Amino acid sequence: MTLVSCMVLAALVFSIGLACVIVHRNAVRVLMGIELMFNAVNINLVAINYFHPQPAGAHGVFLTGQLFAVFVITVAAAEAAVGLAIVLAVYRNLRTINVDQASTLKF
Amino acid sequence: MRLGIPPPITADWVFWIVAIFILLTALGVVFIKNVIHAALALGACFFGIAAIYILLHAEFLAVAQVLVYVGDITVLILFALMLTRGIVRPYLEKWGAPVAAGVVIAVLLGGMFCRYLTTASSYLAPASKAAPLESLTRYGIVLAFSRQLITDYLLPFEVASGILLMALVGAIVLAREERPDDAG
User: Fold this and answer.
1) Could you tell me if B127 lies within 8 Å of chain A, comparing CB atoms?
2) Which of 15-44 (A) contact B at CB < 8 A?
3) How far from B164 is each of A74, A81, B80, B125, B152, CA to CA, in Å?
4) CATH annotation of A3-101
5) Any chain B CB within 8 A of the CB of A3?
6) What pTM was computed for the model?
7) Looking at CA atoms only, how far is residue B91 from chain A in angstroms?
8) Within a 10 A sphere around the Cβ of A100, how many other Cβ atoms?
9) pLDDT for B150-160, tens place per residue?
10) ipTM of the complex
């Protein structure tokens, strides 16, 4: 387990999430792809935090990556709640959740 | 501060097994036909990522991952799928040009990332093993984590609570069913 292997894993998960976002038309599956991409970023943050050299002495620990990942998780939770509420509102109004059919705003 | 916790597992094969599990379940999210099964594969993928966090000495994050992602987001997605179940088509519209383009873009991006990361590995290697995270016990890491969260990162912490409150109210307003007899 090296930094490169962790980052390669994160890159692959990110690419799979991107494929999910591009390929699917169901809005919920698009949101699932976005969650995968969030997780890939979190793996990167935690891995870099782990392999970063710690400061010498008793000045505390370098944990910035982990703290950043906590805030990413917070924002991801808020995004999922609002996104799924929007999906439900779109479903109530248009009777579809396919992102290519909800095109009222399209010019 | 040592609580008699056994040393963490850092064997390489554990990482590789978990990584293969994560990649397989992530591929399942994209390619499983049934949407409900894809959502369950997403939950399994989140579990695997929590295992990676444990290997990387982020125990608090691993627990938060299971609580928030597996317990909250996967369940939310399942609820949304059930509430819109009647019209969810099982799979892609068809394997047309957009789908192929999406897969090609993702494969190219992933290949580019991997090639860059493996060739730049000399830059990514740590300069010195000054004091790795293993020198602390698990308890010490969580202690330092929580202390930094409410001292150095107090402002983002409070802003995050504000964001969660706004998201809560916004989600309720968006998802509320509007009936004609509602008096405002």
Assistant:
1) yes
2) 15-20, 22-26, 28-29, 31-33, 35-36, 39, 42-43
3) 7, 10, 20, 37, 20
4) 1.10.287.3510
5) yes
6) 0.87
7) 8
8) 10
9) 998 999 999 99
10) 0.90
